[in-house]
Design brief:
This protein has about 325 residues and is α/β, with parallel strands linked by helices. The protein has three domains: about 10-90 and about 280-300, Rossmann fold; about 95-180 and about 305-315, 3-Layer(aba) Sandwich (Rossmann fold), CATH 3.40.50; about 185-275, NadA-like (Rossmann fold). It is built from 15 helices and twelve strands. The protein has helices spanning about 10-20, 35-40, 45-55, 65-75, 90-95, 100-110, 125-130, 140-145, 160-170, 190-200, 210-215, 225-235, 245-255, 285-290, 300-315, and strands spanning about 25-30, 40-45, 60-65, 80-85, 115-120, 135, 155, 175, 205, 220, 240, 260. Strand 7, helix 9 (about 160-170) and strand 8 (about 175) form a beta-alpha-beta unit. The structure holds iron/sulfur cluster. Iron/sulfur cluster binds next to helix 5. Iron/sulfur cluster binds near residues 66, 244 and 275.
């Protein structure tokens, strides 16, 4: 049996070489480690990366994020081989909304609400997307719910995002799937209150996947990209941030002089507030997936076609970046 070639010492150089050889594009989410963000061709949140995947025509997409994001890229760019550094990089929201249970839930709600519109947050499996009428991200969720103001709406799978979106869109009647993100749900409201006392001039920025007691103490609530933009534009010199600390890298590139503090987790440390799924990806695994063109993410064609329409609808309904 031939042994696989060893992993090179200069991974950055080797990845750049493989990108050229494979004519590959590397997409990375903001929650990836700094080195992966730096070597990626595009860094963004779910909406930005979906837009890139929709217009890209390259034989290989290396997707550094989690599984549902790579599936989204495959749905939007079926001719590309979509490789991922680690196939185990899942998501508590996607895993907490199995397609068979979701299908039963939707059918049950449709019996009493025949005009029901199913809006699913992009953090769900391809099979759940295929059961949805339109997809949204945290960037465009409020606008998309507002678009269906005269219809009953089922919002899945994040209950905290749903509560915030419902409030912003003036909808107290959203039917909600009770999922949550294990990272954002862990931010500690009591520790945030203490931080606010210690840093009275700081601005607090949080992601809408956070629980209500954290959002109630937040000055600016927005998607990952909006948090980065606000952190850069804010007049505050100290920022207390309630999202994955992968965003710190992009903020520090532009405003290195600002002090960034992550809201502590329930155990008062910051370590639990890194996404354990996102952080499975490493530079070494990125090199290996480009070298071996494996593991690849695939989506059965019937599901891909049914999931494509709600994704395209999201892109049609979203304001240009
Ligand atoms: S941060 Fe939360 S929502 Fe995002 S991938 Fe990780 S578990 Fe899923």
């Amino acid at each position: 049996m031939t042994r696989p070639a060893p992993v090179p010492v200069d991974l950055e150089d080797a990845i750049e070489r493989l990108k050229r050889e494979r004519d590959a594009v590397v997409l990375a989410h903001y929650y990836q480690e700094d080195e992966i963000q730096d070597i990626a061709d595009h860094v963004g949140d779910s909406l930005a990366l979906a837009r890139v995947a929709a217009r890209i025509e390259r034989p290989v997409i290396a997707f550094c994020g989690v599984h549902f994001m790579a599936e989204t890229a495959k749905i939007l760019s079926p001719a590309s081989a979509v490789v991922v550094p680690d196939l185990e990089a899942g998501c508590s929201l996607a895993d907490g909304c199995p397609a068979d249970a979701f299908e039963r839930f939707v059918a049950q709600q449709r019996r009493t609400h025949p005009e029901l519109v199913v809006i699913s947050y992009v953090n769900c499996s391809a099979a759940v997307k295929a059961l949805s009428d339109v997809i949204c991200t945290s960037s465009n969720a409020v606008d998309i719910v507002r678009h269906f103001a005269d219809k009953p709406v089922l919002f899945a799978p994040d209950q905290h995002l749903a509560r915030w979106v419902g409030r912003e869109a003036g909808r107290s009647d959203l039917i909600v799937w009770p999922g949550s993100c294990i990272v954002h749900e862990q931010f500690n409201a009591r520790a945030l209150a203490e931080l606010r006392v210690r840093h009275p001039d700081a601005e607090v920025l949080s992601h809408p996947e956070c629980d209500e007691p954290v959002l109630a103490q937040t000055d600016f609530i927005g998607s990952t990209k909006k948090i980065i933009d606000r952190a850069i534009a804010s007049p505050a010199k100290t920022l207390i941030i309630g999202t994955e600390d992968g965003v710190f890298h992009q903020i520090r590139k532009t405003v290195p002089e600002k002090t960034l503090i992550q809201i502590p987790g329930m155990d008062e440390s910051c370590s639990c507030n890194r996404c354990p799924y996102m952080r499975l990806n490493t530079m070494e695994k990125l090199y290996l997936c480009l070298r071996d063109l494996a593991p690849q993410v695939t989506v059965p064609e019937d599901i891909r076609i049914r999931a494509l329409r709600p994704l395209e609808r999201m892109l049609e309904l979203s304001k240009p970046a």
